[in-house]
């Protein structure tokens, strides 16, 4: 049973962001002889790690005067950053315009509309195309005089993770962390946490976990950003070096196929009661690989990015999975 700490009262939504628990992943830990710990970012009020980027970007914009009272925040997002920005905007008195590829999960689309975002769906196009959701969001911000959050290249994103996520992980492990792994969309989480941990202990291994269809694995390994394959994961994978990733202290990278990630998603759900999305599956699969490489007795930390309910029509849909030649867990 948990004891009640009556002195800890969060100051509104913003005060409830961060300070998430580290959860020992029992089966992954037992299988590797290591402590594999997941930072439970799905417990943020907006349901994902992106709440941290949202508040970091908004507070930075308030400090610099780029965002003024009653203003409008505009962002291109795979969904979770849009959710975090919209909720913080609601709490702070701003409007929000969210531009999102129409290929993202139905659950995220519906949720964004439910919480009051002005949602603009656009066809999924590569970054080099002017119709890419990021470029569309920038143009909308210019047209309406809004503040463009620019999560990919606004380094307030990684700075927020350096000051909060990374610092929390160091404190929660008592400085006993040997490796950290995380997938990248903007790169803010991996870069910020990596910077924080390396500042405390330079031997900590920072490892980028990458899905198929992304060029970041090749970039870390050989400087080649050419992507190959494809993935059903959302919000991760990239074929350019964002400002948040530029100069990040990355020691290695692992490529995780969808089937390996899904195995962890299903395993965490049915054996540990943890409902997580596909990016978390990539992260945990990478953490297991790193733990096996390091050998027993080490501590590996990763990010539990968001909850599985956001992907019910994809990750937990047998018809969808079979259509992609991916494994279907028996209970579905």
Automatic annotation (TrEMBL):
Q: Which UniProt keywords apply?
A: Amino-acid biosynthesis, Pyridoxal phosphate, Transferase, Transit peptide
Q: Which PROSITE patterns match?
A: CYS_SYNTHASE
**Keyword Nucleotidyltransferase included in the entry's annotation:** no
Q: Superkingdom of the source?
A: Bacteria
If you read the UniProt record, what top EC class would you report for this enzyme, in one word? transferase
Mind listing the GO molecular function terms for this protein? cysteine synthase activity
User: A single GO BP annotation from the record?
Assistant: cysteine biosynthetic process from serine
What the entry lists under Pfam families is as follows: PALP
Q: What is the name of this protein?
A: Cysteine synthase
| Pathway assigned to this chain's UniProt record | Amino-acid biosynthesis
The record's listing under Gene3D superfamilies reads: 3.40.50.1100
Q: Which cofactor does it need?
A: pyridoxal 5'-phosphate
E.C. numbers = 2.5.1.47
